[in-house]
From TrEMBL:
EC number: 1.3.7.7
Encoding gene, per UniProt annotation: bchN
Highest classification ranks of the organism: Bacteria, Pseudomonadati, Pseudomonadota, Alphaproteobacteria, Rhodobacterales
Function: Component of the dark-operative protochlorophyllide reductase (DPOR) that uses Mg-ATP and reduced ferredoxin to reduce ring D of protochlorophyllide (Pchlide) to form chlorophyllide a (Chlide). This reaction is light-independent. The NB-protein (BchN-BchB) is the catalytic component of the complex.
GO molecular-function terms, A-Z: 4 iron, 4 sulfur cluster binding; ATP binding; metal ion binding; oxidoreductase activity, acting on iron-sulfur proteins as donors; oxidoreductase activity, acting on the CH-CH group of donors, iron-sulfur protein as acceptor
Protein name: Light-independent protochlorophyllide reductase subunit N
Nitrogenase/oxidoreductase component domain mapped to chain residues: 29-398
Length: 428
């Protein structure tokens, strides 16, 4: 079998000068990651130490009914806590005690910092250590920050997974660790393809249960499934694990390159690799070709929001025929992004960070056919006649690996088709 996607560009974007922006930025709260993480870890509970605004955000984002029993909640910081008139640590101990008494199914408890708890300098790491001592071994208590003051919304997952790495036991076993929270059906597809090649044992972070725990050591190799897991990447390397660098598994090309990097690490023959991937690759190529007809020849502009921007720009330009004008990322981590930058042909501006007013001016001047941005920018740009795509949908929707490649292209083509339909209706 031969590769049918475009050959790598003679000069990718790895050496392209980066436009570094350090001005006002538009971000969405990192607490949002709880919405997909609490579904993934079945015995975990996420207790946000924050305000009523934090509670309303989570309830709205998750669409949780008032009588539901989700695995997240908010420990509300009242006026007395914020004013320093009450001992917030004592209050937190009381709330956690009540929670664990009522919910005996909790095996992992995450104390999640928010903007209010960070402003008053509430030491959640000290609280987590104290509670671990009290409730171990039945409950493991960890903490991380989900504050949106300086971070983007996907960094909540990164901080959560990074907090889990130090407590994993030491191991000398040679194992593959897949890192990143994926929908169950997508994770099963990835694991199924690798196991069909004879790759294993395979572990995942995060695991569904604390009972699925495993060790980390110098014989552990890990492959990231999400490009925003930079802190987790660093935490795993500190434990001695080795990263398998690869483009991210978006589209047929990215999925094949990601699988091939893992297969090479485990000595899988080219013949076996082709046998396992040939049919799903063909389905992915066909699905992308059908879904991307309205994308071919169109231009795209990425605002920095999710950290998915560079691999998605690679997918859209190489598999869907689009032209990237600017690719903005919240933070450019070279060790993680290099394989995708190598495949992204020179041409677009690569921007790190954001000065939102200046970037809006560049977008307005370029008039792209499609702008990928956060919720806060979409409506104003639409009002100015620009077609937009919410970047948050690309995190909530299954888009990884072969079987979702057509759906991924469809997420970008639908706004353009909608715009065309509106124009036709207006003309009539």
């Amino acid at each position: 079998m031969t590769d049918r996607f475009a050959p790598p560009p003679s000069r990718g974007c790895s050496d392209t000068p980066v436009l570094k922006q350090r001005g006002q930025h538009e971000v969405f709260c990192g607490l949002t990651g709880i919405i997909w993480l609490h579904r993934k870890m079945q015995d975990a509970f996420f207790l946000v130490v924050g305000s009523r605004t934090c509670a309303h955000l989570l309830q709205s984002a998750a669409g949780v009914m008032i009588f539901a029993e989700p695995r997240f909640a908010t420990a509300i910081l009242e006026e007395t806590d914020l004013a320093g008139l009450a001992d917030a640590q004592d209050e937190l101990d009381r709330v956690v005690g009540q929670l664990l008494e009522r919910r005996s199914d909790i095996r992992q408890l995450f104390l999640v910092g928010s903007c209010p708890s960070e402003v008053i300098k509430l030491d959640l790491s000290r609280a987590a250590a104290r509670m671990t001592e009290k409730f171990a071994p039945r409950v493991r208590v960890l903490n991380y920050s989900g504050s949106g003051i300086e971070t983007t919304f996907t960094q909540g997952e990164d901080a959560c997974l990074a907090s889990m790495v130090p407590v994993l036991p030491q191991s000398a076993a040679r194992e593959l660790l897949l890192v990143g929270a994926l929908p169950d059906v997508v994770e099963q597809q990835a694991v199924g393809l690798l196991e069909a090649m004879g790759v294993g044992p395979i572990r995942v972070l995060p695991a569904a249960s604390v009972n699925d725990s495993y060790g980390i050591g110098e014989n552990t190799v890990f492959a990231l499934t999400q490009p925003f897991l930079t802190d987790t990447h660093a935490a795993l390397e500190r434990r001695g694990a080795r990263h398998i660098a690869a483009p991210f598994p978006f589209g047929e090309e990215g999925t094949t390159a990601w699988l091939r990097a893992v297969a090479s690490e485990f000595g899988v023959s080219q013949e076996l690799f082709d046998t396992v991937t040939e049919a799903p690759r063909a389905r992915a190529r066909k699905a992308v070709a059908q879904a991307s007809q309205s994308l071919n020849g169109k231009s795209v502009f990425f605002f920095p929001d999710s950290q998915l921007e560079i691999p998605l720009a690679r997918f859209l330009t190489r598999e869907c025929g689009m032209t990237a004008i600017e690719v903005g990322v919240p933070f450019l981590h070279r060790a993680v992004m290099a394989p995708d930058l190598d495949l992204l042909a020179q041409g677009p501006v690569i921007a790190e960070g954001q000065d939102v007013d200046k970037q809006l001016d560049r977008c307005r001047a370029a008039r792209p056919d499609l702008s990928i941005c956060g919720l806060g920018l979409a409506n104003p740009l639409e009002a100015e006649g620009l077609t937009t795509k919410w970047s948050i949908e690309l995190v909530f929707t299954p888009v990884h690996f072969y079987e979702q490649a057509g759906d991924l292209a469809g997420l970008f083509s639908r706004p353009l088709r909608r715009r065309n339909l509106l124009k036709l209706e207006a003309a009539e």
